[in-house]
Amino acid sequence: MKIALMALLFSTGALAENDIKLRNMQLITMSHKTYLQETGVNVSGHDLENVAIDFDILKNGQVAGSRVIEARAIGADEAWRIWLPIDIAGSDGFRVRDIRAIRVSNGDVAAHRSH
Description:
Largest sheet: 4 strands, antiparallel
Distance between the termini: 36 Å
Strand order of the largest sheet: 1-2-3-6
């Protein structure tokens, strides 16, 4: 199995009002298929009902598409693996466009938009 790691355009953690940290983000190609892999961590200190992360998928530095990944019922300090198939031929990068988190305790919505 051949694994090729592609260049990352976004390498530091992103925050949704300090609720979510993203780490180990990379595009991986295995058997001619590309996947976005990363780890999400709830650093809010609260249980989260829902987390949604919007990604722009890049090809030659231009936005070629977008994808959204959602996670539900994320406990305080819990980490989860994100493994998202990317079906855009020739994709070579990505960026986080938006992160939204809804806390279980009071329903507040925290959001961060990357520009």
